[in-house]
Amino acid sequence: MPTIAVDLSDRSIKYAELALTRRGFHLGRFGSKKIEANIIDTGEIKKPAELSAILSSLFKPLGVRFVLVSLPEERAYVATLQLPRVESAALRSVVELELPEHIPLSAADVLFDYQVIAPEDRIRRDGIAPDAPTHADVVVYAFPRSLAEKYMQVFSDAGLEPVAFEMETQALARSLLAASDPSLPTMIVDFGKTRTTFVIAVGTTVRFTSTVSVAGESLDAALMKALDLTASEAEKVKKEKGMIKGKKNEAVFNALLPIISAVTDEIERHVLFWNSHAEHVHEAHPQISKIILAGGDANLIGFKEYVAQKLRIPVSVGNIWMNVSTFNEYVPEIPFNESLGFAAAIGLALRAVRGDA
To answer: In CATH, what class is 3-353?
Structure first.
């Protein structure tokens, strides 16, 4: 089924489609649309009728029927469970029995999925644990049933049929991490318009997520206040000058610094949290091996260098095409500086084209 990946956030809808050709994956239909504030607020749909109308006007002209949709990290629960080893057929029932110990929702009020951690993703001080595990390690991803049902209803009212919902951070990991990479902890920082999301994955398995409200709009607001700019002027200054040090850019640098420093402090806090919590891994507290930046404001000039200098951890700007194309024969139509905002949409599209949906 031709399926469009749809990434919803508080201020935008991004969609993307991948097609499998003889020369690999190619980008199909794609685009983005801004939405007004308060239609979605911190992942919660506040105006379902308005959102359905927007979705219908966006996708009906494209002839879209089937969609694969992201669910917001802010509303997700992620927990790692150690369970007795049981037959695969019985594992879901065992997970469901354990959920109330880890998630503040009753079994009747939650929808969940889970992923069994492969033995090669069990880390210890000297590398990959070779011993056969005596128990099953399972990562659970859960959402309030009421939230998922509201998303389902909104898309149905728009004449669209969701084939699957997925936590947006899982989609981020699928687009930004390579399955061939060593199974070492990596942090993804999705620096978006209204929020910054932190994802820690071991290999390609999401093990921890968190979100703060400090993000791109905070940068715009700081510039508007400090330099008496309009919103569009602040956006232009932010993109053109960024965190460049020097007398000619001193006012811009000083306006942006408190926001960038706050985001970097949050990154550091999450790195320290991971490194000091043994329940995430076996027999050790492995260090975060690298940080990958994504999101619409990850391109801010000087941001990558500031984070790397402060945390002394390798930092790179993500490449959302790494699992799509090598660029040898095909270059996707989305410019690189805009592509970072499509990381979750491309991750969802990869799931659809691989037949996982």
So the answer is: alpha beta
